[in-house]
Design goal:
The chain has three domains: about 120 residues, Phosphatidylinositol 3-kinase, Chain A; about 90 residues, Roll (Ubiquitin-like (UB roll)), CATH 3.10.20.90; about 140 residues, Roll (PH-domain like). The protein is built from 13 helices and twelve strands. Helices cover about 40% and strands about 20% of the residues. β8 and β9 form a beta hairpin. The strands form two sheets. Strands 9-8-7-6-12-11-10 form a seven-stranded antiparallel sheet.
């Protein structure tokens, strides 16, 4: 049968892939050739390449970068029966690789369509992060460091959709010669600037896959660390539901390096901040179920306080830009007791129906 990229254009497209020219010149050459396709072929190709470009954008999660997609689809879309198919295969893959990579320019994709695709990505991410929907994906291997990344002591652990942080602690507890319930799995991001103790019920796979939506510079040093469960123990002593917290804190959003003082309130699983002490003007509000929060702040902005908590939206990619150069929103305060109270409020709001500490396990691994 005739391929989607017709036989008449086969040699011309393969030649275009090998041109030594600017990206714009190559786009122009491809565009001229694709306009020679029959209308049905052209429309079908545009929709298919749009879909493949969409898959490529999620490459950190699905392990299907443009090169892998092109290797599969090149021979399918451009096959020729000349008896020399093996020699053409590489060039065909290069053509499809170019078409996927250049998709927005090649097909003059407008802003409305790009926004639509971004919304689709957000919906998929929200679906993936939902604990209410079973995920059929298989296990992946992750490295877990023991006590600290600097120790260099790490072990490969298999995590699937249903495996939680408590399971990993139980599997590796013999490495630290303690019971699993005495340990905590810690998420370390931004090269250790931000850390987050995972609740024992949290799905480890969700945490690891979330990194795939971040900018490369923000996730390249991310890791999981097995540590003693001191943070949750400190918090558990004061975390008695229902719990609310209110008071002045320093705050900086994704646009600001400088911190300003506002009144913050956490109640009914919502974080709210106000312009003045009277609480007459609400400036922002977040549901705790939509947030991922970390202890610490990125080094580029320092609140000059004893503690800080940085949080991001769980369902949106924390993408930096010229207008929003900083990672997440950051709260900052002065005393350790104050920090523990805010963290206790967050945890009770997020895990209201679960114990903060895991139940003791007596089946200690030998």
């Amino acid at each position: 049968p005739e391929p989607l990229l017709t036989t008449q254009l086969h040699v011309l497209l393969c030649s275009a892939s090998g041109l030594s020219c600017t990206v714009d010149d190559k786009v122009s050459r491809y565009r001229t050739l694709l306009e020679k396709l029959p209308p049905v072929n052209y429309v079908t190709l545009r929709r298919l390449i749009s879909h493949l470009h969409f898959i490529h954008q999620q490459r950190e999660k699905n392990l299907m970068p443009v090169e892998n997609l092109a290797a599969i689809w090149g021979p399918t879309l451009m096959h020729v029966s000349t008896g020399n198919e093996a020699n053409w295969s590489k060039r065909e893959s290069e053509v499809i690789c170019d078409l996927i990579s250049m998709y927005p320019k090649l097909f003059s994709v407008d802003e409305e369509e790009l926004i639509k695709e971004q919304r689709m990505l957000e919906v998929l991410e929200k679906y993936h992060n939902s604990h209410q929907i079973p995920k059929p994906s298989g296990d992946i291997k992750v490295w877990v460091y023991i006590t600290s990344k600097e120790s260099g002591n790490c072990f490969n652990v298999s995590v699937g959709p249903q495996r939680d942080a408590g399971d990993v602690c139980q599997e590796l507890c013999y490495k630290m010669n303690v019971y699993g319930h005495e340990l905590c799995l810690m998420e370390s991001v931004l090269n250790g600037a931000l850390i987050r103790p995972l609740h024992h019920s949290e799905k480890v796979l969700d945490t690891v896959l979330r990194w795939g939506y971040w900018d490369d510079a923000d996730c390249k040093e991310n890791c999981l660390i097995l540590v003693f469960n001191t943070i949750f123990r400190d918090i558990a002593a004061i975390a008695k539901p229902p719990i609310a917290q209110c008071g002045p804190l320093k705050f900086a959003d994704t646009k600001s390096k400088a911190f300003k003082s506002y009144i913050f309130e956490f109640s009914q699983a919502k974080l709210v901040y106000y312009k003045d002490k009277n609480g007459s003007v609400k400036l922002g509000e977040w549901k705790i179920e939509d947030l991922v929060w970390y202890i610490g702040h990125e080094p580029k902005r320092n609140p000059h306080t004893r503690w800080a908590i940085t949080f991001i939206n769980k369902n949106n990619k924390p993408k930096r830009s010229k207008e929003n150069p900083y990672f997440g929103w950051t709260l900052a305060g002065t005393t350790r007791d104050e920090q523990l109270k805010w963290m206790a409020a967050f945890l009770i709001g997020e895990f209201a129906h679960l114990d903060l500490l895991p139940k003791p396990q007596m089946d200690f691994l030998k």
